[in-house]
Amino acid sequence: MSPGEIVSRTRSGVGLFDMSHRGLLEIRGEDRVRWLDGMISGDVQALESAAPGAGCYATLLTNRGAIIADLHVARFENAYLAESLRSELPRILETLERYVIADDVTLTDRSAEFATLGLEGPEAARVLEKATNGQVAELGEENWAESTIGGREVLVGGFGFSGERGFQIRMKPQDRGEIEQSLGVAAGGDTLVHGDFEALEIMRIEAGLPALGRELDEEVLPPEARLERAISTSKGCYVGQEIVARLRARGQVNHLLVGLRIESSDLPEAGLELRAAGRVTGELTSVALSPTEGPIALGYVRREHAEAGTEIEFDGGRASIATLPFVAGLAAGDTATSGVT
User: Fold this and answer.
1) Architecture of the domain made up of 254-341
2) SS3 category, 220
3) For residue range 213-225, what is the model confidence (pLDDT) as tens digits?
4) Is the whole model's pTM more than 0.90, yes or no?
5) Residue 337 pLDDT
6) Fold for domain 1-253?
7) What are the Cα distances from residue 188, in Å, to 130, 133, 168, 281?
8) What's the CA gap between 341 and 338, in Å, rounded?
C-alpha cells in the first residue's frame, strides 16, 4: 500500500503506526514537582491538583528562550513522564541533569522498556474504547491512562501526530503482537490500516504540526513555531520564561512557521533557502506529496511575507504561502492559522 493510500484510509477511518522513534523519560524524587515546574513551560503545579494521568504539552527552553525540545508530560502518583523524540532524549537528559544540583530528582530514560504504537484517525477513539473494554473512554487531550488490551497492560497517551484524534500506546515488547491483533479485532474486518513513518510525516505536514529536528530547534522561539499552546501564562518562573514573556509583551516575532503550496513539478529538498520580493526570507523545513493537496511544505519566512497567498521562490521552483492546516477539519491546535497573528 502506498503512503498516499495509507493517508487517505487513516483520514477516513483509523491507522496503526510503529512509534519506535518516540522516547520516554521518567522523573522521580521528592523535589520532582518543584524542579520540573522550573524546567518546562507547562504548568506542572496545576497537574498536581488533577487526577493521576493528567498531562500537558510543554517545551524545554534555553536561557535565550529557544526550543531544546517539545514534550508531552503526564503526572502519576510517584513520578512524571515526559515523551519526546527518542533520538533527542540523550541531549534532553543531559540538559536537564545540569539543573539537578541539590535536588532530590532522578531522571531515567525508559524508552527501551516499551514498544510503542500510534493509533490515529477519526475512528481511533472508538477502536481504543472497544479494545480496552471501555476502560479508556473519552481520554482527554494530552492526558494519559493505564489500561489493558487483550489482557496485556498498556500505557495510553492522549495525543497524536496527524492532526486527527490520536493515541500513543506503550506496552511490553513481547506483548506487541497480541495487542496489534486485539486492536484489529476492535476495528472490525480490515478497517485498521497499518501505516509507516512516511505516511505519518505526510499527515503531520498536512496538519501543519512542527516537529523536533525539523521545525523545532535551538534557533527557534516558541511563538515563531506557533506553539502558544505549550506555554503557560499563569505559572511561576522557568528556564527561558523572561524571553517568552518579553516576546508576548512585544506582540510579534520576526519569523513565523507557514505552510507552502509547491508549484514546481519536483519536490524540493528541506533546507532550501526561501526568497520573497528578491530577498532571502527563510528556509524550507519539511516537504511532502499529499494525496489530496499535492506538493506541500512547511517552512519559516519573515513576518511580512507570512500572509496567505504571498509568492515565494527557491532554487528550482516557486511556492505560495498557504492556510494551515492544509486539510480542512483537522484539529491542528495553535498551528492552524491563515497567516500573521
Assistant:
1) Beta Barrel (2.40)
2) coil
3) 999 999 999 999 9
4) yes
5) 38
6) Gyrase A; domain 2 (3.30.1360)
7) 10, 15, 20, 49
8) 9
